[in-house]
Structures are given as C-alpha cells and as structure tokens.
Amino acid sequence: MSNTSLEWWPYVTNRLTCQTAQNQHPRIAVVGDIMVDVDLHCSCERISQEGPWPVLGIKRTQRRLGGAGNVALMLDALGAQVELYGAVGRDGCGEVAAAGFGHRVVMVHGRTTSKTRLWVQGRMTGPRLDEDLREPISPSDAALLARLIAESAPDAIIVADHGKGVVTRDLMRQLGRSRIPVYVDPIKTTPDGDFVPAAIAGGSHELPPWCRAECVITKRGADGLHWCDGEREGTLLSTCQNLVDPLGAGDQFIAGLAYQRCHGRDWPHAIEWANTAAGLQCELAGCQPVSVAEVEQRLETKLTVSEGYVEGQTQSFLENHRVSPHWSGS
Hints:
Mean pLDDT: 81
Strand content: 25-35%
Shape: globular
Number of helices: 9
CATH superfamily of the domain at 29-34 and 73-114 and 136-308: Ribokinase
Number of strands: 14
C-alpha cells in the first residue's frame, strides 16, 4: 500500500494555536441560521371521526431559540460569554429570535425559520412542521456579520449551518481571514471558505466535499463518533443512558468542544467532554442545555480518556477513507 500523500490530507499542517481564555468564561461567537423552535405540548383523548388519526388538544406552547440560537443557549449554560450572529425575518418569530443575550442579527425580508414539533403525553411524535425561506444573505450582509465578529475578537467562532442562507461562501472566506479558531457544524452544502477550520464535526452524510480541519469528527448517532487529528485517532461510544430526545445533541457537542478547547484542553479530552455533554443532552426533553457540573459528574464514572484513542496509528484510517466522497472531494 502506498504512502499517504499530504496533498489530499484533510487535516491542517500549519495549525492555529488554540486561544486559551484567560478566565473561566471564554468569549465565543456563534454565527449561522437562527431559528425558532416551537413545541406544542398536547393531550390525545380520542380518534377523529374524519379519519384514522388522533385529535390532539394543545395544552401548552413553548417557543425558544433553535439552530444557531440553540448552540448559543448551550454555550451560555456552560458559562461562556456568547454573541449570536445571523439573520431573521421581520415577523413574530424574528422578534423571538432577536431577543435575548448579546445577539447581533441582521433583519432581512422574508420569514424567520421555525420548526414546530408535537409532544403527546411527554413524548415527541410526528410530523414536524417547518416554515422557512432559503435565500442566501447578500455579500454586504455577510461582510457586516464578519466585521462585527472580527471587531468583537472572540476566543473562538462556531459556524452552525442549517442551509437557510446565512452561511455563504463570502462569509466563510471572511471568517477564515480572522485568524480566530473556527469550529464548523456543517451540512453537505456548507461552502468552502478556502481556509482550514480548527474542527469540523458532522455525520458522514453531512460532511461537505471539501472536508478538512485540524481535527475531523465523524458523528455516528447512537454508535458514537470517530475522530482524527492527523496524529491520533479514536472512537468513542455514545454516553446516553436513557434516550429521550436526540435533537440538539449535535449543538451540544460543538458547543462543548469549542468551550473545552478555549480552556486549553487537547483534542482527546475536549472531544470526550463534548461527547459526554451530548449524551447527557439526549436524556432531556426539548433541547435542554447541560451544565459543566453535570458533565464533570458523569465523567467521574468513566474510564480515563487515554483508553479512548490510539496514538500514532492513523495510517490505516486515512488509507481506508481516501476514496470515500467526503475525503476525496469527488
């Protein structure tokens, strides 16, 4: 088998030094698609006479930030100083999204993305109802968001892309020029900004063709995750002990990862910490964020992280993934 060529290697060789926060509250900017999650908590007492479906009675309606906003809420719960950047419409949901802590949002024409989920007797059921307008923000709005982030000079940037139009190629390029560590939570069509992020974390169906980073993390749902930073690789199982609601686990993971890296933790420990936080979040209904104390308590019951990865044995992993779409760019 031939040696691995660094020309295609999806990992950084000239790494950005992690900017360690000088206190316990790192400053983290979140930029991406701000949404409003609407939870309809219902009761079901009978079957409709109009057809074979249940009649739901709405008992309580809950609205909260979703998408990039959910990442910001989870960082806030961890104790980070958070600023949220994105775009919302001039509507009722936009007012919900624009309210809160230190947000800097661009008001655009159109509809704020909202996702409505149904809960019956405390359990989520289908279908989910989405309202959105998938149009990219203008180059001038992208430049404005990038400039505001640069002026704020955070310790890290999280890009939360949900394909609703905020994360454009213009925005990604300008974030790359900031020389601030960028953590990307992508979708398949997340644009290439012509720079190397600190980390990119997504499922195999979410990682874009240009996938490269100092650390690449492939999430596998209930099967955990695999990560590789070019020198080490590892596989971690899911830490969820009682699955209630998996939605938001990815947001919790990227928030925990950036938070721990801002405190100077190396990749193995930061990833295990974030994986544990995501597992705890899956045990809660409605994307409830977890606290540092809760994560630390769960970690105390686990084996040391040194047993979770193999050092200096990345060659086979890289060779096996060389021809797969999200590594080769085909």
